[in-house]
């Protein structure tokens, strides 16, 4: 798998630019060199001219010392690859304009978002400036610190990080499927604090999303997300799920029509004041999202007697919901938005998707990229419902029982 966002770091003259160009040269199509350098003196002019010559004729050079995001957004629509050279010069350009550290780091977040969201591959070059002795003046020390922080932020969100040492590329981070295979092999009993935090972050930052932009979904990413779903627990290990991956526009239009009808029926059952609020809510993104997925449950899988299901028949449906939650969390970790649409006639959905009678469509999901993961559930922001305090939902020993010698410590952010 080719990584979409690549950070190339290293010391001065370590071969960073050459490495970036040799990766980019493998692309066919528009190649953009986004230069943040300003030719302020003769030495810089000479350096820029030399680099331009090295790149050859099939490159387009865009010079943007302060606002590379504008170029990324514009060129990202048509380019196959953009090489930005370099992050540290961009930071120093902003410092020279007397921008505060916080403003620089805000700009950096916007840059990272643009790199991650753009359609094309982005290769960002940076410098390791923190390895030498402590600089003698405050401005230089500030520059070293901001550059270090900037490198860390980019490295944490980019797919791949390559450290150039004496012309040799050393991959220090890779989100390729190889890394995921290694993940499956890991037998460590304890999760590291970072891994724990990552999991909780996916849980707390997961949202049901109904607003999508037009960015396509990377099939490799979708593969990982569905594989995460497929690793959910299931009663008797029956794995009752199937995933219908829908990108057919006509089919999506049929489902969107189904939603419209079902939503109108649901609305009339509400009180008059709730009806108004209900109608103002966006409750699906069927046509806006590039991919829809219907997750189904086949109760007949493994025959009539499934270990653990004989007593509670619905456990196959519960298992499918576990898979859906895995999908939702993995998608969030990948930066993919998911919206669950249940305001649908199941009968009609089964007909449109040609689902056999014994198979139950559990969830109809919209998947795509979004400009914003809502900070809170959209229904909370819209005044429809609030999160119930967790302490009200925990009983001890018996229904509505009080603590007896043991009580749960609820985290403050909950
Ligand atoms: C089983 C199920 C069905 C849902 N159906 C819909 C739906 O039809 N339309 C919608 O806008 N949201 C739907 N949602 C999303 C919920 O509204 C959402 O999960 C809830 O408001 C909490 O927000 P959050 O997911 O962002 O935390 C559904 C969620 C679940 C779990």
Overall description:
With 414 residues, this protein is α/β, with parallel strands linked by helices. The protein has 2 domains: 5-177, Rossmann fold (3-Layer(aba) Sandwich); 198-392, NADH Oxidase, CATH 3.40.109.10. 41% of the residues lie in helices and 16% in strands. It has helices at 16-24, 42-55, 68-75, 87-96, 101-117, 138-157, 177-185, 193-205, 219-230, 249-268, 272-280, 315-333, 346-352, 378-381, and strands at 5-10, 31-35, 59-63, 81-85, 121-125, 160-165, 168-174, 241-246, 291-298, 337-341, 359-368. The strands form 2 sheets. It has a 7-stranded mixed β-sheet, sandwiched between helices. A 4-stranded antiparallel β-sheet has the order 8-9-11-10, sandwiched between helices. Helix 2 links the parallel strand 2 and strand 3. It is elongated, with a radius of gyration of 26 Å. Bound molecules: flavin mononucleotide (FMN). Residues 207-208, 210, 283-284, 340-343, 377, 379 line the site of flavin mononucleotide (FMN). The site of flavin mononucleotide has 11 residues, from strand 10.
């Amino acid at each position: 798998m080719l990584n979409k966002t690549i950070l190339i770091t290293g010391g001065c003259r370590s071969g960073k630019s050459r490495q970036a160009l040799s990766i980019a040269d493998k692309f066919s199509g528009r190649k953009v060199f986004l230069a943040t350098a300003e030719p302020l003196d003769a030495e810089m002019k000479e350096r820029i001219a030399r680099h331009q010559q090295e790149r050859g004729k099939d490159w387009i050079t865009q010079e943007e010392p302060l606002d590379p995001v504008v170029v990324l957004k514009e060129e990202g629509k048509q380019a196959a690859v953009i090489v930005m050279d370099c992050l540290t010069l961009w930071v120093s350009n902003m410092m020279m304009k007397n921008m505060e550290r916080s403003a620089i780091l805000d700009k950096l977040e916007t840059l990272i978002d643009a790199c991650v969201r753009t359609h094309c591959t982005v290769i960002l070059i940076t410098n390791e400036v923190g390895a030498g002795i402590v600089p003698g003046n405050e401005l230089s020390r500030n520059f070293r610190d901001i550059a270090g922080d900037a490198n860390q932020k980019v490295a944490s969100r980019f797919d791949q990080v390559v450290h150039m040492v004496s012309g040799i590329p050393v991959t220090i981070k890779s989100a390729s499927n190889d890394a995921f295979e290694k993940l499956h092999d890991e037998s460590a009993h304890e999760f590291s604090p970072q891994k724990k935090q990552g999991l909780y972050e996916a849980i707390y930052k997961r949202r049901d999303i109904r607003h999508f932009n037009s960015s396509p979904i990377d099939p490799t990413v979708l593969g990982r997300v569905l594989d995460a779903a497929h690793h959910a627990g299931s009663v008797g290990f029956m794995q009752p799920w199937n995933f219908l991956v829908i990108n057919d526009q006509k089919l999506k239009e049929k489902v969107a029509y189904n939603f419209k009808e079902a939503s109108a029926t649901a609305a009339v059952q509400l009180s008059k004041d709730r009806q108004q609020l209900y109608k103002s809510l966006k409750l699906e993104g069927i046509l806006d999202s590039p991919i829809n997925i219907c997750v189904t449950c086949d109760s007949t899988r493994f025959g009539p007697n499934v270990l653990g299901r004989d007593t509670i028949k619905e456990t196959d449906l519960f298992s499918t919901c576990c898979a859906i939650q895995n999908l939702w969390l993995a998608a969030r970790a990948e930066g993919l938005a998911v919206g669950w649409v249940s305001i649908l006639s199941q009968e009609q959905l089964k007909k449109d998707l040609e689902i056999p009678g014994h198979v139950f469509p559990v969830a109809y999901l919209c998947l795509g990229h979004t400009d914003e993961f809502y900070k809170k559930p959209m229904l909370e922001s819209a005044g429809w419902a609030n999160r119930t305090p967790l302490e009200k939902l925990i009983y001890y020993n018996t229904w509505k029982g009080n603590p007896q010698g043991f009580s749960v410590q609820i985290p403050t952010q909950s």
